[in-house]
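Input:
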Amino acid sequence: MYRYDEFDHKIVTDRVNQFRGQVNRRISGELSEDAFKPLRLMNGVYLQLHAYMLRVAIPYGTVSSKQMRMLAHIARKYDRGYGHFTTRQNIQYNWPALDRIPDLLEELASVEMHAIQTSGNCIRNVTADQYAGAIADEIEDPRIISEIIRQWSTFHPEFSYLPRKFKIAVTGHENDRAAIKLHDIGIVIVRNDKGETGYEVHVGGGQGRSPFIAKKLTNFVPAEKLLAYLEAVMRVYNMLGRRDNSYKARIKILVHETGETEMRRLVDEEFERIDASQMLSLPEAELDRISAYFAPPNYENLPAQSEVFEAAKGSNADFNHWVKTNLVPHKTPGYGIINISLKPIGGIPGDATDVQMDIIADLAERYALDEVRVTHEQNLVLPHVKLDEAKEVYDILCAHDLATPNIGLISDTIACPGLDYCNLANARSIPLAQEISTHFADLDKQYDIGELKIKISGCINACGHHHVGHIGILGVDKKGTEFYQISLGGSADEQASLGDITGQAFTEDKVVDAVDTIVETYLNLRQPEERFLDTYRRVGMSPFKEQLYAD
Amino acid sequence: MAQHSSKGARFQAVTANRLNDGEVVYFKDNGWIENFAEAEIADGQEAAEALLTRASPDNMEAFILDPYLFEVSESEDGFTPVSVRENIRAKGPTVRTDLGKQAEAG
Ligand code: HEM
Ligand code: SF4
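Output:
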């Protein structure tokens, strides 16, 4: 796994010291809030409804057991015993006091973690497929290029004052689990006819107030030229992106207003200039150096089939169910990828207690080659577990309410913090997720419904990805009362699409009924093997609309 | 973000967040308190504006962030905030009733 070199470490500790000074000056009254606010935001500190919130970066969603233990420690010492894993593969703490955040950050830095690039108009923390390095048929581990991008973009002078925040996601697999088409830049690692590895680059995706699916600007950039290509995209954006209106400042608006063809031409032109200068070509040695950090861990030589595992499945139906939904085949024989659901029935999506985080850290250390991953769907992953030991892991997860067998099912809802915490919210999101999951608690029912992704945001900023939910729910405010708009047919995978709004918004007490009606309509209409999304794409909105607004 | 008061609002109070820990606070008698039930209530628009002015002296920023007026309504057991948002700020997250002011109130 990647370890900060000394240079990075110095950057992070200098930053903590600098922030400590800024906090002191703010509290002593020397600094005004106007002067301080951008500084605290640059360090991941937001003011929410009840308290400050701190967002900690988890680059490409990978943490070691030591880091996970630190996250638990921070939840216990500086917060109220829990943290919230987010759709940006980060963790947020909801209650830290401002005057203690410098100490908190210093402790984080001791395990090479920080809150840099979690806020502000910079290139944000790069996100990647949570199964990186573990899943079969991956072309290249996406964390390698994510790390290179992280190093290139951290404090890059040209990119510290972009028109708006900038988000990059990478996948090395044809199944997109990183929602790359909904990012400012989405990268798919591909192989060309000659067997060379390169990058397909999608630009201008995004959610928020004006959602867009990214446009593919190039099919293939060779590895050594990727940074030059990205720099070209960033330059075009920096030059032409709108700064007059923050709602129109994201690159998605530029791509939309400029048009795909013209945008491609502008980027190509800039790319040729940068490429000719050779300034940003990525030497193979550097690529190899970073790749070495992500070298496969020491797997044991195991038979593909584990007798212990098969026997456990045969004798324990609950375990068998859990394996079907939460365990994914690993590229290495005898191993599996374990998904830890942070969506217990009726629970708060993405929340984990300090005790749970400690348990997960222990499991990672003992059973998963010391790694944990955070998914953008607000779950966690133990990426390399021996099938022989899967049942042991399962038993421990069960004991800590971490073994809900619902990955990808209707109760595996994404929800942003919403009006329970967020200063920008119009309506609550978490209680809806809880009600929906409780309503569909019956596992047989959930299995029958099959893959169905519900995503809930408490306002149009779309932190809960509602635009790309198979069923999306958006909180709106009408004179201080919560209402919810529902959309259908969104998707964040390789066939990304934006949902269509069903019609008039629903009051809070009608949302679960509405979701139930949508599910029943699907069950009545579906053909064999059809998932909700397939049925919706085949039949369109009208049958759903008819049922929803029947009276 | 939601509007904090409707146009014809009669009763309003002033709230803010405290600088050092972000705690929700209410204005009362030229000071700030944590409990909504004790907040000073202004009757009418003029009284409300006077209340906000008193709550926002020049040195206010030294310990308080962004004071603003919000609407409350009168009922049998006193005043309650009108919007869902202000109710949540006055109590704590509805999904964690063990946290925030509601928990301390017991
Ligand atoms: C204090 C809490 C938060 C604030 C103030 C906040 C603010 C915002 C804003 C203003 C946008 C819209 C950006 C735009 O359209 O240009 C946004 C988008 C987004 N936020 Fe948040 N957010 C918060 C919490 C979260 C959380 C908890 C998550 C993860 C669960 C998250 C993930 C995202 C994502 C994925 C997007 C949409 C992607 C995009 O940038 O287009 N945010 N947020
Ligand atoms: S979508 Fe809105 S309510 Fe939800 S976290 Fe983002 S800004 Fe807050």
